[in-house]
Amino acid sequence: MRHVPDDERRVRPVGCAPVAVRIDVQAFCDSVPAAVGAAAERLRQDGGVGELASAGGGVQAVVRDGQAAFRAWVGIVERDFAGDCECAPDGVDLCAHAVAVALTAFATDVVFASAATPPGAEPERAEYLEAVQRLAPDQLADLVADYAVRDRHFAALLLDEAGLLDAD
Question: How far apart are CA 161 and CA 95, in angstroms?
């Protein structure tokens, strides 16, 4: 058997697809501020976390918080656990909605990819969001309604998001 020098024994990165990882749930919970963790647990206990869906190597769900609903996503980004939520101001990574999604995912043994892409990370999406923000609410409503009339798939997504899709 050939002797392998110490410097050759080190793990070296190789070009491969992301692998599945498991999260140290206790370490995650310990890293979350107590107030955020308590709010997340309340959301879970109140049934506020909707159905989990795989997205970009992470997981997302709609989280109902009182009368409001927010889409929250969590996943592994650059070796750190990260979140993305419609409620969170810039710079806030893990709000209560994202933590509630994470805790729900942990409870159902979701396995995360080692390298995920948050929903807002695509450059085109940022450009579209900027365009949407420049429109008046009635302009945006007209544009969405016109597009829904032309695209049945988009219409179904719109009605589902609004809670208006018949389940019959």
Answer: 21
